[in-house]
Amino acid sequence: MEENHFHYNDSHNIKKMVFASLFAALMAVGAYIEIPVPISPVPITLQTFFVLLTGAILGARWGTISVLVYLLLGIAGLPVFSGGSSGLGMIFGPTGGFLIGFMFGAFIIGYLSDRLGTKNIGLNIAIMLSGLLVIYVFGILQLMNVADLSLTQAIALGMVPYLPGAVLKLIAAAVISSGYSLDK
């Protein structure tokens, strides 16, 4: 008689792999959904929205893996970054810090969600805010470095115009992910 070696953990990991791939694809699709910002050449996209959801729903490990897959696809040349851009140059360019920040933001959101849960919307908003701040720190620092801007200039160009959209995306992601986890 042949023994079945497929266990719950196997199916659970497959489920997480599938969702990690799905969220990587959603981040890519979100990069194409653009809202122009009159004072900036960089539009508002839904990438950040999906990064926030990824961390909250997949947790620290799989959320980070999902964003890493997304980044690697873009680095490899697939047009998954904002405006259909791709390549290593995007990572080292003025907005590359935001892309790298996605990975760390998803990790922080996932880590806090794993430990504190996502049932309380207020707490979930605070968790999302912490991840968003991490994304902005990476983004602003690289923008300062690459574009030779002061901190004030980088914040004025790389954060202030995007705050209204970021707040809406953060609240939507917090509400959607509230109480949801793949571990259930």
UniProtKB/TrEMBL annotation:
Signal sequence, start to end: none
Keywords for this protein: Cell membrane, Membrane, Transmembrane, Transmembrane helix, Transport
MF terms (GO), sorted A to Z: biotin transmembrane transporter activity
Transmembrane segments: 17-35, 67-85, 91-112, 121-141, 161-182
GO CC annotation terms, alphabetical: plasma membrane
Any matching Pfam family: BioY
Localization: Cell membrane
Entry superkingdom: Archaea
Keyword Transmembrane helix: yes
Ligase among keywords: no
InterPro entries cross-referenced by the UniProt entry: BioY
Topology of the protein relative to the lipid bilayer: Multi-pass membrane protein
Family that this chain belongs to: Belongs to the BioY family.
Name used for this protein in its record: BioY protein
